[in-house]
Each structure stands twice: as structure tokens, then as C-alpha cells.
Amino acid sequence: MRTVNIHEAKTHLSRLVDKAAQGESFIIAKAGKPMVKVIALAEKDSDAPQRLGFLAGQLHVPDDFDRMAGDTIAELFSGGTP
């Protein structure tokens, strides 16, 4: 596995990231001491459950949601009790 010093990594970061994304991982060293390993992220697994929108159609948000309990909230912010 290729090791690059931190100065070289800063100078050629775009090129190094492109290579890492293609599977050529590398190590960044500072003063000759290995500090981090750069590897490509795994592709999204098509069998993995979808998180975004997983409750779609299961919840109902009222049209006046942003106005609900407005008087109570205003009282609390002004130091009053509900």
C-alpha cells in the first residue's frame, strides 16, 4: 500500500481521492509516522433497508402543526405559567 507524506497529500489531494475511490487505498504519514488510512467508501448495498422515508404514509401531521399550543408557548417564553 502506498504511503504519502502529508505535504504531498495536501498538494495532490484531488488525484489521491480519485485513486482511492477506484480502490487504490493509501496511507498519509506525518514525519514518516503513519497517521491515517484513506479507503473508498463501500457502495450502497441494494439489500440494505432504506432509512429515508421509512415511515412514509404512517404518520399524519396536522395542517396547523406550526400553530399548535402557540398561546402556551408564548406564555412560557414570557415567564408566565400555562
TrEMBL record:
Top-level taxonomic group: Bacteria
Residues of the signal peptide: none
InterPro entries listed in its UniProt record: Antitoxin_Phd/YefM, phD-YefM_TA_antitoxins, YefM-like_sf
Pfam families: PhdYeFM_antitox (PF02604)
Entry similarity comment: Belongs to the phD/YefM antitoxin family.
Biological role: Antitoxin component of a type II toxin-antitoxin (TA) system.
Protein name per Swiss-Prot or TrEMBL: Antitoxin
